[in-house]
Amino acid sequence: MATLKEKKTCSERMEDFRRFVWNPETKLFMGRTLINWVWISLYYLAFYVVMSGIFALSIYCLMRTVNPYEPDYQDHLKSPGVTLRPDVYGSRGLQIYYNISDNKTWDGLVTTLQTFLTAYTPAAQHLNINCTNDTYFFQDTFDGPNKTKLSCKFTSDMLQNCSGITDPTFGFPEGKPCFIIKMNRIINFLPGNGTAPRVNCTYVGDESSLLEVDYYPVNGTFNLHYFPYYGKKAQPSYSNPLVAVKFLNITRNVEHRILCKVIGAGIISDNVYDPYEGRTLLKNT
Amino acid sequence: RSSRKAFKLTHSYVEMHEFMLQIKPKPGLSSAKAAQVLARDGPNALTPPKATPEIVKFLKQMIGGFSILLWIGAVFSWISFGIQLAQGAESPFDNLYLGVVLALVVILTGIFAYYQEAKSTNIMASFSKMIPQQALVIRDGEKKELPADQLVVGDIVEIKGGDRIPADIRLIFAQGCKVDNSSLTGESEPQSRSCDFTHENPLETKNIAFYSTTCVEGTATGIVINTGDRTIIGRIASLTSGVGNEKTPIAIEIEHFVYLVAGVAISIGVLFFIISVSMRYKILDSIIFLIGIIVANVPEGLLATVTVSLSLTAKRMAKKNCLVKNLEAVETLGSTSVICSDKTGTLTQNRMTVAHLWFDNQIYSADTSEDQTTQPFDQSSPSWTALSKIVTLCNRAEFRPGQENLPIMKRVVVGDASETALLKFAEVILGDVMNIRAQNKKVAEIPFNSTNKFQLSIHKTDDPNDERFLLVMKGAPERILERCSTIMINGKEEPLDSEKAEAFQTAYMELGGMGERVLGFCHLYLPENEFPDTYSFDTDSMNFPTSNLCFVGLLSMIDPPRSTVPDAVSKCRSAGIKVIMVTGDHPITAKAIAKSVGIISATSETVEDIAKRLNIPVEQVNWREATAAVVNGMELKDMSSQQLDEILCNHSEIVFARTSPQQKLIIVEGCQRQGAVVAVTGDGVNDSPALKKADIGIAMGIAGSDAAKNAADMVLLDDNFASIVTGVEEGRLIFDNLKKTIAYTLTKNIAELCPFLIYIIASIPLPIGTITILFIDLGTDIIPSVALAYEKAESDIMNRRPRNKRKDRLVNEQLAIYSYLQIGIMQSVGAFVTYFTVYAEQGFLPSTLLGVRVNWENNAINDFEDSYGQEWTKYQRTYLQWTGYTAFFVSITIQQVADLIIRKTRRNSIFQQGNKVIWVGIFSQIGIALILTYGLGHVTALNFTPLRFQYWFVAVPFAILIWVYDEVRKLFIRRYPGSK
């Protein structure tokens, strides 16, 4: 096998390159005439304009076909996720530690809760109506203003002791902290099959000791009249119902793992891959 | 340096010679002593050329090509895994897995390439394995048959005609011993050997016979003076194997391609690394983006595909009798622009055959094809009857018994080449020559010798009424004519006057001018009264007339060209390949064969031809007018390399005659100086440097020596020149098809790369994962890429010039730009439309997706709001993201089907060319995609989800668009060929 490449010196290579960039004899710029380059650039310009046009057209068609009120499919939203406030995450999920005597360690937590609850002040909820029925609140027509549907009011005072109104520190200094549990919105989702879903918190891994919890509202239920959710466009002022839990007998300086589940038909809480579907796990000291 | 080596060689041989005289031949060595020496010197066998250790070959596969890029990717993955682990992040194992997968990909493709390489090497190894040679040795005072590799220095061996010399031997007894040293020294004549020390140079002295040469005739006894690698041939072999192999054209092309793609990968990677850092992404994230970009850019499966395609072609070529030792040589043959071919055996049949007859003042041509069964010339003349009788009777050659069922041309004959030719010729025309000979009993015979230059025999005739003896004679025509006083014309004896002698001369010159070996035939019926039935003929005193005979005719013989060769040569010519004949034969014979096979075409003339036609001296001819040239080896010796270059440049048809094997090397180098890709055929040991030097060395499978086969890149199993042309065709086809494969593979790189770029810039959820990309590159795309290797030629493959290795690259800018910037962009658009469709229909409209990356990927956000106000946990989002991957994957696959269809042909419309294997490709592609999405859709580690079926069709309009766009392009190419 013979050598096919002769070795070139660096200066020869540079010279070759310069000649390639601009060849004065053939008047070629990078292997083509200038006019040729112009044509090619124009072609590519046209090509990309057309391709962008096709893309834009496709997206336009897509937007025309999707329903503005609810998504076509909810393949991944079979069951709602459950989240907790305050949400302080460590490397293994929610982790909340604080020192009772040092208010700097829990100030942030309290602020988080207060900020969160600003969306539930009567002022923030003034667009929503008061609901009293303990059944699903079906609306087949658009009864609200501007072709919307009505939403039920949920105000922070419904959380009583954990509303931040009576106790702005949410019980943190006493070692009986409040946490707020929220269930994710899913359009047309009907939890509980007629009975209101309910929050239940327990210790994990240590079944011997019983966790004493106060639930607000009573029994820790999400009232059925907050369901179904009809989507942002239909219910612009909708806000999720909440359940507050107050842990009463937490032993101090011991790490606890507390699991709060939403119990109700249609709510899956045992998906091994998704730690927040239907439940929320809390480490607390 | 080599001259010093030669001196040393001589020296040791002379010393050896002195030492030899002390050895007593009779008892030979004792077995114990022999075993001792064997233990010291090792077996008498050539060490095979030092092969690269297997582990080195393996490691080369591991780091060659793109592997290094992927290793970098893997290392980065592990580094980021380490960092994340140290930081206590939530899911650092993703990066660990990615690194492992990348490493696995490299290792598996490496193993695969290694396996392919090893398989093709093994074919060769099994081929070169020879039947173990035996040697007749005297040990412990007894004659023993021993395997030749057991021989040791000091052994006494006996050899006889037909044996291969088992080691370098100093002869102590020789009787009529001749050896064929052609494979060693290039001398084509057998050399006689005796016990006499005639020359200081071991190669010249008559008393040494060399390992691996053959003893042609006679017997000899000798002492082994050197064994194994210490033999002369062993030293030559080790010298040649020292010459390193250079890269094949396809290796250079692939390297060029790897550089190009790696360059693109690294520059885009670094560019976006900088962009992402300056966009305030974390360094760690930027590194992960970098890995993604590299993986997207590198066609992981391509090099394996290329190997498979090449080995498929190698297999196809092996079926057509071209055995390829080095896979890459498959393509080299396709880019060949000059073939330096041997004459004997390659262009010709390697056997003498009667080509022309002259009787009744007329020249007749005979059929010289390989499988003649009849001869078409006019056989009605009584002169022919007389001539045929002489041909039959005055001949000592015989068929070996037991071959009655074989075709005549295939039968083995005992006798020399011309007699064999005459015997077969007679057998074809007359049938059963042996029977005719039996009926015309031979009573006396003088065999041919170099002083008489004739052969004579006297026979009883088969006519019972005719009591006369028939004297028949054949020999050198001028010698035969001298002995004749009459000549037979149409069966009648007529006096041989000057006019008839003139006619004879003309015919003799004409036949001789065709490079043929001419024999004259004459006979005489001995008068009954002088030579009665009982007459006793004495060949020593010659008591019978040997003059005033009756001249009957001439027969001329030649080693005729193989019937397939002229066609093959003309194919080469139309394919722009220059065929140069290099032979040790006489220029006239060489030229005649060159003319008959078309190496010198019918219309072209050499300088000598022009001189003859114009009747002027050779010196006055303008040599630029001559398209053909016949160069004598003697002239070549005195030429400077510039003169040789001039000849090679200025003549399109060249024959080198009377050349030694060493001069072959000079010719090859000359051609390479012109920038040609040179193929060389050869068979002797001394051809091996030329074979090595050539871009592709082609050894003869039947006639070739082991050394030649070792040095060659390819072996022609049938020694037939036409097989080379088949090889060229296959080589060109595979080059074209590899181009298609690469274009096909490169296209989707853009569709794999764009997601990363847009992900970084627009901060959308990642459209396709690194592992998913690997599933395209190493899953769905592999079989279609290989299927492209089955694509047939696009009409004009053998009518175009060989590719210019500096200009016609495997991957040129046009191909890359067309793949990357046009088709690739179309694919990306199609895939993104699918991506956006999936997200929109699940709740995330395109406008919501822009800029969400940070929150989207935040593990702490488990109530992420979509366009409809619904809230998603991290896992739900990730699952949607995987659905996005799957959708992106599916739409790339669908569009790759279109890509496959457009890449099938480069000029022709899809409607003009079919290929059934492509269907296998398409079905496999879709089948694998179906299995991945629906079969493995629940295995979370693979990031596939069972996709809603309608998403398979979102990209279909784009696939159709790609196909129509390319059909239009091809239409323009066909309409306006040659434009850029």
From TrEMBL, chain A:
Keyword terms: Cell adhesion, Cell membrane, Disulfide bond, Glycoprotein, Hydrogen ion transport, Ion transport, Membrane, Potassium, Potassium transport, Signal-anchor, Transmembrane, Transmembrane helix, Transport
Recorded GO CC terms: apical plasma membrane; sodium:potassium-exchanging ATPase complex
GO molecular function ontology, one term from the record: ATPase activator activity
UniProt KW Endoplasmic reticulum keyword: no
Membrane-related topology note: Single-pass type II membrane protein
UniProt keyword tRNA processing present: no
BP terms from Gene Ontology: cell adhesion; intracellular potassium ion homeostasis; intracellular sodium ion homeostasis; potassium ion import across plasma membrane; proton transmembrane transport; sodium ion export across plasma membrane
Principal location listed in the UniProt entry: membrane
A Pfam family the protein falls into: Na_K-ATPase
Transmembrane annotation, as ranges: 37-62
Places the protein is found: Apical cell membrane; Membrane
Function: The beta subunit of the gastric H(+)/K(+) ATPase pump which transports H(+) ions in exchange for K(+) ions across the apical membrane of parietal cells. Plays a structural and regulatory role in the assembly and membrane targeting of a functionally active pump. Within a transport cycle, the transfer of a H(+) ion across the membrane is coupled to ATP hydrolysis and is associated with a transient phosphorylation of the alpha subunit that shifts the pump conformation from inward-facing (E1) to outward-facing state (E2). This is the non-catalytic component of the active enzyme, which catalyzes the hydrolysis of ATP coupled with the exchange of Na(+) and K(+) ions across the plasma membrane.
Family: Belongs to the X(+)/potassium ATPases subunit beta family.
Assembly and binders: The ATPase pump is composed of two subunits: alpha (catalytic) and beta (regulatory). Interacts with alpha subunit ATP12A; this interaction is required for the formation of a functionally active pump and targeting at the plasma membrane. Interacts (via N-terminus) with alpha subunit ATP4A (via the P-domain).
Protein name: Sodium/potassium-transporting ATPase subunit beta
Species this protein is from: Melopsittacus undulatus (Budgerigar)
Automatic annotation (TrEMBL), chain B:
Entries under NCBIfam families matching the protein: ATPase-IIC_X-K, ATPase_P-type
Protein name listed in UniProt: Sodium/potassium-transporting ATPase subunit alpha
Cellular compartment(s): Cell membrane; Membrane
Origin species: Melopsittacus undulatus (Budgerigar)
Protein keywords: ATP-binding, Hydrogen ion transport, Ion transport, Magnesium, Membrane, Metal-binding, Nucleotide-binding, Phosphoprotein, Potassium, Potassium transport, Translocase, Transmembrane, Transmembrane helix, Transport
A GO term, aspect molecular function: ATP binding
Coiled coil: none
Main location: membrane
GO biological process: intracellular potassium ion homeostasis; intracellular sodium ion homeostasis; potassium ion import across plasma membrane; proton transmembrane transport; sodium ion export across plasma membrane
Superkingdom of the organism of origin: Eukaryota
Membrane topology recorded in Swiss-Prot or TrEMBL: Multi-pass membrane protein
GO cellular-component term (any): plasma membrane
Gene label: LOC101876536
Family, as annotated: Belongs to the cation transport ATPase (P-type) (TC 3.A.3) family. Type IIC subfamily.
SMART domains: Cation_ATPase_N (SM00831)
Sequence intervals crossing the membrane: 63-84, 96-115, 257-281, 287-310, 815-838, 917-937, 949-965
